[in-house]
Amino acid sequence: SQQGEEDPQALSIQEGENATMNCSYKTSINNLQWYRQNSGRGLVHLILIRSNEREKHSGRLRVTLDTSKKSSSLLITASRAADTASYFCATENSGGSNYKLTFGKGTLLTVNP
Amino acid sequence: DVKVTQSSRYLVKRTGEKVFLECVQDMDHENMFWYRQDPGLGLRLIYFSYDVKMKEKGDIPEGYSVSREKKERFSLILESASTNQTSMYLCASSYPGTGRPGYTFGSGTRLTVV
């Protein structure tokens, strides 16, 4: 079953602009993670934010988490053509015993040079 | 460089064949996972394993089985391949416990069943 739902499904921006993607989920979580997938390849882990954290930064990435709204956002600042990829949020649901992740359907980001 | 290696990038099999997809990781991870990815459906968990010889069904285990005889290797088996199993298959591994730093994915196997 799908937990995270990303919004928008697709996003097209110009190089240098900021890109914001959102993720909503339904149940209590231990943490939420964002992954990137280049076309036809495996996913790459970007950043993890725990349920007791509200904001986290990594380079040009900024992630926020609002557990009261069950939502997260990923901001990529000063985007580059190389950021073109699909981005997925994944939730590790609390109460489980094996800490597996449930992935959303992804946002396709296109950064035009 | 640590990695998860899937044995084939592209595979074409006939309906009814028994298909083996192999995944090997060199990070000494306890947990290993098999997902399939389809357009519009995202990633769906087929099976996962949290220890050698241990396995649990994911969300869509029907038509699949798995084998984990050694810690580093996790095999996905399609008992009798069908056209609706045409998909991208992704293997991943991770440490156990909450909040560990994410999954490491292989590059994927694109399977076509004809």
If you had to describe this structure to a student in words, what would you say it looks like?
- The complex is a heterodimer of chains A (113) and B (114).
- With 113 residues, chain A is mainly β.
- Chain A contains no helices and eleven strands.
- In chain A, strands 2, 4, 5, 9, 10 and 11 form a six-stranded mixed beta sheet that branches. A five-stranded antiparallel beta sheet of chain A has the order 1-3-8-7-6, with no helix packed on it.
- In chain A, strand 4 and strand 5 (43-50) form a beta hairpin.
- The radius of gyration of chain A is 14 Å and the shape is globular.
- The model of chain A has no long low-confidence stretch (mean pLDDT 90).
- By secondary structure, chain B is mostly beta strands.
- In chain B, strands 2, 4, 5, 6, 9, 10 and 11 form a seven-stranded mixed beta sheet that branches. A four-stranded antiparallel beta sheet of chain B has the order 1-3-8-7, with no helix packed on it.
- In chain B, strand 4 and strand 5 (42-51) form a beta hairpin.
- The mean pLDDT of chain B is 92.
- The A-B interface holds A 1-2, 30-31, 33, 35, 40-45, 48, 50, 88, 90, 92, 98-106 and B 4, 31, 33, 35, 40-43, 45, 48, 50, 56, 58-59, 88, 90, 92, 94, 96-108, 110.
SSE map:
The complex is a heterodimer of chains A (113) and B (114).
Chain A: E1 5-7, E2 10-14, E3 19-24, E4 29-37, E5 43-50, E6 55-58, E7 61-66, E8 71-76, E9 85-93, E10 101-103, E11 107-112
Chain B: E1 4-6, E2 10-13, E3 19-25, E4 31-38, E5 42-51, E6 54-57, E7 64-70, E8 73-78, E9 87-94, E10 104-105, E11 109-113
Parallel strand pairs in B: 2-11
Antiparallel strand pairs in B: 1-3, 3-8, 4-5, 4-9, 5-6, 7-8, 9-10, 9-11
Short description:
The complex is a heterodimer of chains A (113) and B (114). Chain A has 113 residues and is mainly β.
Spatial separation of the terminal alpha carbons of chain B: 36 Å
Q: Could you state the order of secondary-structure elements of chain B as H and E?
A: EEEEEEEEEEE
Mean pLDDT of chain A: 90
Show the largest interface.
A-B, 26 and 32 residues
**Rough shape of chain B?**
globular
Number of strands of chain B: 11
User: Shape of chain A, please?
Assistant: globular
What structural class results from the helix and strand content of chain A?
A: mainly beta
Alpha-carbon Rg of chain A, integer: 14 Å
Class by alpha and beta content of chain B:
mainly beta
Helix proportion range of chain A: under 10%
